[in-house]
C-alpha cells in the first residue's frame, strides 16, 4: 500500500471514529434534540444528529478549519459546511477559486467534490447557540491533530474566525509544529508562517462566513475570494 493510500484509509477510519464519538454529553444531547425537534423548513428531513467528520481531498494542500457544524446545516446533512448560509457562502467562494466542483452544497449526495482542499472544524458537534465550551474544544483537539498528521501535503491552513484560529494553533503545537512567540493574534488577512520539521505551513486568517458577518458586510464575497486566491498562490509557490 502506498503512503498516500494508507493516509486515505486512515482518514476514513478517523471519520468513523469521529461519528462514534461521545466525549461531550452536552453536545451529543443538543445534536439529538435538534434532530428530533427539527426546523419547520426541514421537517421532512432525517437529520444526521451526530458528530460530523471532515470532508475533502486527501491530497489537499489547503486545509480550511471552521468552528463547528451548524445545527440545521451540517448537523442535518452530515457533511461539513453543507445545508446552511455559511456553507453556501463558503462553497460558492471555493468554486470560484477552483477548489470545488460546483457552487452549491446542499446534501451529502449532491455531487460536490473538493479538489486540493479539505474542510474540517475545531468542534465536530453542533453546540448550543454556536458556542462550544473550552473543554469541548479541547475534547475535539485530537481529531484535528490526527487530520494534520494524515494530510501530508497541506501547505496552507485557512482559519475561519478567531476561535478556529486559536483551536488550530493549539492543535498545531500538539502535532509538533513550531509556533512563533508571542503567538499570533487573529486578524482578517493575517498570515503566520509555522515550521514542522522541513515543512513550512502558512496560517491564513479570515472572518467566518456566517450570515451575521456576510449580511453586515464585515465579510464580502470579494474579501473571501482574495483569501482563497492567496491560499492558492501560497500552495502553488511551494
Describe this structure in words.
This protein has 8 helices and 6 strands. The chain is α/β, with parallel strands linked by helices and 238 residues long. It has a single domain, classed as Uracil-DNA glycosylase-like domain (Uracil-DNA Glycosylase, subunit E), CATH 3.40.470.10. Strands 1-3-2-4-6-5 form a 6-stranded mixed β-sheet. A hairpin with a 2-residue loop joins strand 5 and strand 6. Helix 1 runs antiparallel to helix 5, helix 4 packs across helix 8 and helix 5 packs across helix 6. The longest helix is centred in the N-terminal third of the chain and has 17 residues. It is globular. It starts with a helix and ends with a helix.
Number of strand segments: 6
Along the chain, the helix and strand elements come as HHEEHHEHEHEEHH
CATH topology: Uracil-DNA Glycosylase, subunit E
**Measured distance between first and last alpha carbons:** 26 Å
Helix tally? 8
Outline:
The protein is α/β, with parallel strands linked by helices and 238 residues long. The chain has helices spanning 3-19, 25-37, 74-77, 85-96, 134-150, 162-175, 211-215, 221-236; strands spanning 55-56, 62-66, 117-121, 156-160, 191-196, 199-206.
How are the SSEs ordered, and which strands pair?
Elements: H1 3-19, H2 25-37, E1 55-56, E2 62-66, H3 74-77, H4 85-96, E3 117-121, H5 134-150, E4 156-160, H6 162-175, E5 191-196, E6 199-206, H7 211-215, H8 221-236
Parallel strand pairs: 2-3, 2-4, 4-6
Antiparallel strand pairs: 1-3, 5-6
Amino acid at each position: 500500500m502506498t503512503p498516500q493510500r494508507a493516509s486515505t484509509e486512515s482518514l476514513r477510519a478517523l471519520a468513523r471514529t469521529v461519528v462514534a464519538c461521545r466525549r461531550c454529553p452536552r453536545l451529543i444531547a443538543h445534536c439529538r434534540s435538534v434532530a428530533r425537534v427539527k426546523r419547520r423548513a426541514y421537517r421532512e428531513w432525517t437529520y444526521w444528529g451526530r458528530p460530523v467528520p471532515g470532508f475533502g481531498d486527501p491530497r489537499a494542500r489547503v486545509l480550511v478549519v471552521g468552528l463547528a457544524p451548524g445545527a440545521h446545516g451540517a448537523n442535518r446533512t452530515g457533511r461539513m459546511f453543507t445545508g446552511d448560509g455559511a456553507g453556501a457562502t463558503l462553497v460558492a467562494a471555493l468554486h470560484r477559486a477552483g477548489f470545488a466542483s460546483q457552487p452549491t452544497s446542499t446534501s451529502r449526495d449532491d455531487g460536490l467534490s473538493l479538489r486540493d482542499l479539505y474542510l474540517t472544524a475545531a468542534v465536530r458537534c453542533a453546540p448550543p447557540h454556536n458556542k462550544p465550551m473550552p473543554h469541548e474544544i479541547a475534547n475535539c483537539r485530537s481529531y484535528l491533530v490526527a487530520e494534520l498528521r494524515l494530510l501530508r501535503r497541506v501547505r496552507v491552513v485557512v482559519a475561519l474566525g478567531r476561535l478556529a484560529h486559536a483551536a488550530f494553533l493549539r492543535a498545531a503545537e500538539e502535532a509538533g509544529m513550531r509556533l512563533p512567540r508571542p503567538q499570533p493574534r487573529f486578524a482578517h488577512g493575517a498570515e503566520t508562517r509555522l515550521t514542522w520539521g522541513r515543512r513550512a505551513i502558512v496560517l491564513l486568517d479570515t472572518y467566518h462566513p456566517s450570515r451575521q458577518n456576510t449580511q453586515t458586510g464585515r465579510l464580502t464575497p470579494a474579501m473571501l475570494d482574495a483569501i482563497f486566491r492567496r491560499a492558492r498562490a501560497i500552495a502553488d509557490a511551494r
